[in-house]
Amino acid sequence: MTQLGLRYQLGDGVKQDWTEAEKWYLKAANLGDGEAMSMLGTCYEYKFRLRIAQEAEAQGLTRPNLGNSDKAKELVLAVDWFRKAASKGNSTGMFKLGSCYDDGWGVAKDETEAVKWYQSAVKAGSSAAMCNLGYRYWQGRGVKQDKAQAEKLWRKSASMGDEGGKMALKEVGLK
What we know:
By secondary structure, the protein is mainly α. The chain has one domain: Tetratricopeptide repeat domain (Serine Threonine Protein Phosphatase 5, Tetratricopeptide repeat), CATH 1.25.40.10. 70% of the residues lie in helices and 0% in strands. The protein has nine helices and no strands. Helix 5 (91-103) packs antiparallel against helix 6 (111-123) and helix 7 (127-139) runs antiparallel to helix 8.
C-alpha cells in the first residue's frame, strides 16, 4: 500500500495525485507501517506548503507568510504522523520531527527537541539528519560547537550520497 501511495505521489506509472497517495498512505499507516506514517506526514506538510503558496499568490505576494506555522492544522497533523513514524523507528519520521522543531512547524520552535530528534535520526541512519545536525555542531546551535563533529557528520552524509552533506563540506571549504 505504501508503494502504491508513493506511485501516486510521484506520478510513477499513474497520474500524479496527492489525494490518492494520502488515501493509500493512511491505509498502510493504520496497519502500523512506519514509512507510510512518515509519508502521510509529508502529505500534510505538502498541503500546508500548497495552501500558503496559493494564499500568497492570491494576495500578490512573492513570498508566503509563514506566521503562526506552529498552529497550522496541516502541520499539526504532519507532526502527529511524524511522531507516530518515529515511534516505529522510522528515521525519516525522526528527521522530519527534528525539522519541525527546528522551524516551529506544527510545534513551538525548540532547539533542544530538534537536536534530540536529529540525533535519534542519525542513530537510525538518516543522512539528511546527519547534514542538519552537522550544521548545528558547526554553528554551536543547541549543542556545544564542535567543527570536527560537524565535518564527521557531513562526510558520513556525503558518503551515503546525500547532496546536502556534499554541499555543506563545500560551503565551509572542506573537501
